[in-house]
Amino acid sequence: MGTEESKKRPLVFAYYVTGHGFGHATRVVEVARNLILAGHDVHVVTGAPDFVFTSEIQSPRLFLRKVLLDCGAVQADALTVDRLASLEKYSETAVVPRASILATEVVWLKSIKADFVVSDVVPVACRAAADAGIPSVCITNFSWDFIYAEYVMAAGNHHRSIVWQIAEDYSHCEFLIRLPGYCPMPAFRDIIDVPLVVRRLHKSRKEVRKELGIGEDVKVVILNFGGQPAGWKLKEEYLPTGWLCLVCGASESQQLPPNFIKLAKNAYTPDIMAASDCMLGKIGYGTVSEALAYKLPFVFVRRDYFNEEPFLRNMLEYYQGGVEMIRRDLLTGHWRPYLERAMTLNPCYEGGTNGGEVAARILQDTAYGKNYTLDKLSGPRRLRDAIVLGYQLQRVPGRDLCIPDWYANAESELGLRTGSPTAVTAENNSLTDSYPQDFEILHGDFLGLSDTLSFLKSLAGLDALVDSPTKTGKHSIRERKAAAGLFNWEEDIFVARAPGRLDVMGGIADYSGSLVLQMPIREACHVAVQKIHPSKQRLWKHALARQQARGQGPTPVLQIVSYGSELSNRGPTFDMDLSDFLEGDEPITYEKARQYFARDPSQRWAAYVAGTVLVLMKELGIRFENSISLLVSSAVPEGKGVSSSASVEVASMSAIAAAHGLNISPRELALLCQKVENHVVGAPCGVMDQMTSACGEANKLLAMVCQPAEVLGLVDIPGHIRVWGIDSGIRHSVGGADYGSVRIGAFMGREIVKSIASTLLSESRLANGSNPDESEEDGVELLEAEASLDYLCNLSPHRYEAMYAKMLPESILGESFVEKYTDHRDPVTTIDKMRNYGIKAAARHPIYENFRVKAFKALLTSATSDDQLNALGELLYQCHYSYGDCGLGSDGTNRLVQLVQEMQHSKASKSGEGTLYGAKITGGGSGGTVCVIGRNSLKSSEQILEIQRRYKAATGYLPILFEGSSPGAGKFGYLRIRRRNPPKQN
Predict the structure, then answer these.
(1) Catalytic site residue 600?
(2) Of 181, 414, 763, 940, which residue is least crowded by CB atoms under 10 Å?
(3) Where does the record place the GHMP kinase N-terminal domain (predicted)?
C-alpha cells in the first residue's frame, strides 16, 4: 500500500469468518494477507483449519482464534441443503447463546485493542463491534438474512425472528464491501463494489504438471467437490480415454482408479486449477471466482436450496465459463459429453482479480478516517435489493419475475443496462396481437385465453434465442436454450392447458367420499408436446452420448424442459430413455418409479410429468415407440394449495394423449393423473384436484361426490356472489406429514366405527332373537350399513353423534391400532407404529364437512338475501375451525380468516350492505390459500385489497390474490399447431 499510509500507526483488525465452507476462509486469506503486508495485525476468528491461513501467511501479525459463531447451511448430503436443520442449527449456535456470545466478544475485542472489525459474513460480529464502540464492515457476495429467508418461508416459519435479527445485526456495520456474483442485501446501509477476490498463483501450469508427472498433451479435470456424495465410487470409465482426474478432498481410505489422482489434503487448489483443462464441482464463490480468473471451464452440478447459487451461476454463464451436469449423470459416471462440451468453451472474464488488495486498502483507509460511502446512492441501492429480495420470497413460476436482468447482470460488474421491474412486467403482459399469427392452428381453439396466446408467442420466440442469446424474456438462458432445441418446427406440436383449482368446499373430506365444490382458477399450466421418430429427435449431447455408450442406435427418449426452474431450486431439464420404464416387455412397478425419481432431488419434479407416461403404459397398456419432447410452462403457484401439481399432471397427460391419438375422457384422465400423484410421486392426495383441473368450467363450481369420482354437474356461482383466494405465504405440501397423519386418522376412525357397529349389531341380534319389531329392523339395517362402511361421509352427523362420537378415542398409537384392527385400509398411506394419530377430530371433520357442502350447494340456488350470504359464510367459518381441530391450521391462514371477520363486523360494513361473509383454509391445510366469499361489488374488492395490505403490515408478506376462473382441460381440448414459416434448423 502507499507510503503515506505506512507512516501511520499499525492497526488491529478483528476478522470474523462464517462457518460455511472453505470458500469464505480462502477469500479472507487474501484480504488478511494484504492487511498484514501493510503492517497491520489481523486476528482471525474462524472454525476453519489453521493450514488454510498459515500456508499462505507466515507472519507473527496473524493470530488465529478457533471459535464458531454461525453454522452456515447444514447439508443433508453433498448436494442438498437441509433447510429446517440449518435454521435449527443456527438457532442452537447463534440465537440461544446470543447474550453470552455478545458479552464474550465485546470483552475479547477490547482485550486485543481492536481498531476495526471485519465480518465475512458473521451477523453477531457487527452487533458485538457496535456494543464495543468499534466500527465494522462486511465483505461478502451474500448475507445470511437472504439465505435463511427462503428457508423460513419453506421449512421453518416459527424461526422467522432469525431473519430479522440477522438483518438488524448487519445494519450496525458501516458499509458493505460487495463481491461480484452478489445476492440482494438490503440490510446494509451503503455498498462499495470491488473486483473478484482470488488467491494468487504460486507455480506455473508447467511446474505443477511436472511435479504431478502429467504431460502437456494430457487432458486434466480437477474434481473439486468439497465433500463427495456418500457411498460414491469413482470408476475408470467415467473419464474419456486419455484424460486424468485430480481429486480434491478424497479420504485417506478411498481407493481410486489409475486415471484418478488423489491430491494431498493441503494441496494448493489455485495452482492445481490453473494447471487443469476444466473443473468438475459444486458452485460456490471460491470455485466460481477462481474458475473465471484462470479462465477454467467449469462443469457444475447444482445444489438444492443453495440460494446464492443462481447469482453465481448467472455470472459464470455470462462469461461463457459454465456447463451444467445433471446429477444423475454425475453419480452414474456419464461425464464424457460434459467434459467434451467444456473443452469448446472460451471463458472470457477480463475483469479485475485483485479484490483482496482493493478491499484491504478500503478497510485500512476507513480505519484511518477516510470516507468511502456514497450516501446519495444508498437509498436506491437498498430499495432495489429489497425489491429483488421480495421477488425471491414470493416467487411464483410463470407469474412473477425471476431474478431480473437489471439486477443479476449488475451494471457495475457486467456493464449492462439497469431498468425498472415494472417495465419488465409490462413487456411480459403485453398482448399486441389477438391471434397467434406465427402458428397455423390445425385443430382446436385457444378460446381467446390471453395466457394461451402468450404461451404460443413464447413458443414462436424460441428460435430468436439463436439471434439474440441475451433476449430470454421472463425465463432463464438455460431454460430457453434447452427449449429452443426441443421441437422440429416443420412437424405438428400439440398444446394442452389445465388450470389450478380453488377449494371452495370439501377439502380434505374428498378421500372420505364427500361431496366437494371446486372452482378452476385463472392460473393454468400449458404443456407443448411433439412426438418424434427417434432417428429425427435432436438429443441433448449427454443423452446422445448415453445411447452411444450403450452401443445402441436411436431409441425413444423423453426430453422435458420446465420453465420456472430458477424460482424453485430445481433443474430446468430432465431426460430419460423410455426403456427405463420397462423391465423386459412390462412396465416397472410404481415403487421402482418412485425410487427412480427420488435419486436426484433437483429433478424430482419430473415425476409429475414423466409419471404420466408410465401410468398410461401400466393402466392402458400403451407402448411408446417414438421419442417425446415436452415443454412445461405453469403459472399456477407452487406450494399455495391451489393444485399446481394436478394442473401439471393433467396438462401433461392431455398433451401426450393428444399427440398419440388417445381418446381419454376428462374423468378417466383425472383418475389416471391421481395415480401419478399417489403412486409415482408418492403424495396421498384425493381426486378432487385432478377432477377440477380436467372437468371444470370457467366461473362454475364442479360438484363431485368422491366415491371415487362421480361428477354431479356444474353449479353456477350466482352473479351477486364472488369468490377469492388469498395466499397466506406459508408453503403447503400435500406430501407433508400433517396432511398424511390426518388422512390416516380418518381412515382409522372409519375402521373403528365399523368395528363398533359390528359389535352393536351382534348385541342387537342376540338381544332381539328371532322376532324383532319393525323399528328394530330399521336399526339393524342401519348398523349393517355402518358395519360395512365404504366411505366415512356416508355416515350422517346425527348418527355419528348418537352412536359413535363418545366411543371414538381422541388419539391412538399406530402400534395399538394395528394390534386391534390390523389395518386402516388406505392404499396410499402407511401407518407409523410409533406415531400417535388423532382420531376423533380427523373422523368428525369429513362427516360434518359432507353435510356442510350439501347445505352450501343448496344455498347457492336459494333466494338472494343477506341471510343466504351469511349462511354461506358461516359454513366456511365452521369448515375452517374444523381444520384447526384436526391440526391442519396455520398462523397465516388463521390471521387471514380473522381479518375477513374483522372486515365483516366492522362498523363500516354494518352501516351499509355487508360485503365479505366468510373464509376458510383450503385444500390440504397447514398453510396455503384461504377461500373468501362475499358480495360481488366494488366495495368487496376494496376490502380484499385492504386485507392484503393489513396482512403485509403484520407479516411482511404481500399475499397473492386469486381472482377469476378459466376452463378445465376437457373444455379446452387441445391445439394441434404448426409454424407458418418455420425457421431453418441445424
Answers:
(1) no
(2) 763
(3) 608-696
Task: State the catalytic residue, choosing from 400, 405, 503, 689.
Answer: 689
For 320-342, the three-class secondary structure string (H helix, E strand, C coil) is: CCEEECCHHHHHHCCCHHHHHHH
Q: Report which of 311, 285, 248 is spatially closest to residue 27, judged by C-alpha positions.
A: 285
Separation CA 646–CA 525 (nearest Å): 9
* Segment 600-620, tens digit of pLDDT: 777 888 999 999 999 999 999
Provide CB contacts within 8 A for 379, sequence distance 6+: none
Domains and CATH numbers, the chain: 12-197+359-394 (3.40.50), 205-350 (3.40.50.2000), 439-462+480-504+516-679 (3.30.230.10)
358's grid cell: 482493493
CA dist., res. 42 & res. 47, Å (int): 16
d(CA 603, CA 930): 30
pLDDT at 377 over 60: no
| Contact criterion met (CB below 8 Å) for 175 and 188 | yes
- Rounded Cα gap, residues 860 and 277, in angstroms: 70
Nearest residue to 971 via CA among 702, 714, 696, 715? 696
pLDDT digits (tens, 9 = 90+) for 811-870: 999 999 999 999 999 988 999 999 999 999 999 999 999 999 999 999 999 998 889 999
pTM of the predicted model as reported, rounded to 2 decimal places: 0.71
pLDDT in tens, 120-145: 999 999 999 999 999 999 999 999 98
Instruction: Please tell me the chain's helix, strand, coil percentages from 3-state DSSP, rounded to the nearest 5.
Output: 45, 15, 35
Return the biggest CA–CA distance within the chain. 115
Cell of 726: 388469498
Burial 706-716 (b: 16+ CB within 10 A, else e): bebbebeeebe
Task: Name the E strands within 217-364.
Answer: 219-224, 243-247, 260-262, 278-281, 298-300, 322-324
pLDDT in tens, 437-448: 788 999 999 888
pLDDT at 464: 65
